[in-house]
Every structure is written in C-alpha cells, then in structure tokens.
Amino acid sequence: MNILDKIVLQKKIEVENSKQLFSVQDLERSEFFGRDTFSLTNNLLKENSSGIIAEFKRKSPSKGIINDRFSSLEIVKQYENAGVSASSVLTDEEFFGGKNQDLISVRNEVAIPLLRKDFMIDEYQFIEAKSIGADVVLLIAAILTPKQVKHFTALAKSLQLEVLLELHDESELDHVYHLVDMVGINNRNLKNFEVDVEQSIRMSEKVGNDFVKVAESGISNIDMLKHFKNNGFQGFLIGENFMRTEDPGLACKQFIETL
Fold first, then answer.
1. Which of 80, 162, 216, 240 is flagged as catalytic?
2. Which one is catalytic: 217, 240, 241, 253?
3. Whether the predicted model's global pTM rises above the 0.90 cut
4. Which of 11, 43, 50, 55 is catalytic?
5. Is 162 a catalytic residue?
6. Predicted local distance difference test score (pLDDT) of residue 169
7. How far apart are CA 75 and CA 82, in angstroms?
8. How many folded domains does the chain comprise?
9. Residue 100 is part of a domain; what is its CATH number?
10. Distance CA 249, CA 102 (A)
C-alpha cells in the first residue's frame, strides 16, 4: 500500500467521524457559509499578478516536520503582504499536521483566495470547505474517477467554490472536465513522493490552453518559475520552498521582489 492509499483510508475514517460531530445543518450555520468567495482564477489572470499560491504546511509524509513554529494566521498574512495571488492551507491533520482551524483563523484577516488543501473524497467535505471559509477546493485525479470529478465539480460550483483539478501523468487526462476552473500538474508523485520538475512541462501541451494552468511542487527558484510561465502556466503553487526557511513570509517577499 502506497502513501496515497494510506491517506485515503485514513480520510474515510476522519470524514465519518466529522459527520458524527457536525451535521450538514451545523456546517450551513457557519458564519462563512453565506459569504461571497474570492476568485483565484481571476487573480491568476490579472495583469502583473505574481501567480504565486503560497502554502502553509507544517509537515509532509516525505519530509516530516517542515516548520511548526508559526500559526497559519502569521504566515498567510505575511504571504498576502508579500503579494501572492492566493494561499493554500493544509487541513489534513494525520499526515500534514493541518486542521480546519488553520483556515478558519485566517479567513476574516485576509482578502486573498484561500485554497483548502486536502484529500476530497466525500460530498460532506465540500460543504465543510465552504463552512470554514475556503474559496477553492482541490480535486486530486489520482484518488477520484472521472465521474466523481464531474459530480464534485458541480457540487463545488453550487457552493461558489472554484475547483483546481490536480493531475500527475497522462493516464489522468480523462479526468479533465470542462467546468473545472484550473488544472494543476503536480511535479511530485503522490504515490512515492518523488519530484520530477519537468512533469508539468511535459503535461502542459496535453492539457491544452482552455484552462488556467498551475504548476505544483518542486518550484525552488525564479528561473524554474519563469520556465513554467514560458510554457503556458499562470499559477505556481509553492510550499516547502518558503516554509522550510526561518522566516517564510520574508522568503516569499524576497522571492516575489526578485520576480
């Protein structure tokens, strides 16, 4: 059983536990449930946009603890001040050290789109995402069928949530659905967590130009980002490159200033 299989098994247990704690009706009573969401797609397409989606992540299955010294609020506010297009917040606890509260605590304090980064396998999680203040949800093709992608995209849209569909290789191209807002291509293989920074480039032409495209993982310098940009990408999801520093907000600011 690979890491991704283990994560999905654990996620099924967590979702069932959450359903026992909070009903859909409870979630719909959240202060955030009726709010108008921010558009990540629009931010990525703006003239002079940095295109950077900076991630708040404490740990990962492959790297262990990355940075657990700061709160999500501290870091995401610094990311916003640095000029990011959006921030991604990990809410998976078992494998990434995140929690829903990390997103909740940030929501009213920033005016940028927030991507709920988690492993979405159940309708309940989309209602939950809306209730904790997310603007965007991630659909990972490797753990979903094309039919589920269509269904979950429709559900997300009904909740005013944008959809970032994540692909890893050509076998997942049949998951691409015309109503998703963005297609992300992950340079990291979620089954063994190895990184191939050219993966996004190879996949870009296969996806075509009908979607806003996001390069994910392994972006560690300006030249690499520009390489992706020159190959048709408008968004760049960057996590560990900032989080593993002593001052993630400053690292992000200096990166964008150089860009």
1. 216
2. 217
3. yes
4. 55
5. no
6. 85
7. 10
8. 1
9. 3.20.20.70
10. 16
The answer to whether residue 131 is catalytic is no
* Catalytically annotated residue among 11, 43, 57, 204: 57
Rounded alpha-carbon distances, angstroms, from residue 16 to 25, 35, 92, 164: 16, 26, 14, 24
Structure tokens at 87: 């921030």
Alpha-carbon distance 77 to 37, whole Å?
Answer: 18
130 included as an active-site residue: no
Spatial neighbors of 66 by CB under 8 A, at least 6 apart, are: 57, 58, 59, 60, 240, 243, 244
DSSP 3-state percent helix, strand, coil across the chain (nearest 5) = 45, 15, 40
117 is catalytic: yes
216 is catalytic: yes
Tens digits of residue pLDDT in 102-147: 999 999 999 999 999 999 999 999 999 999 999 999 999 999 999 9
30: amino acid identity, one letter: S
Range of the domain at 56: 3-258
| Candidates 186, 187, 200, 204; catalytic one | 186
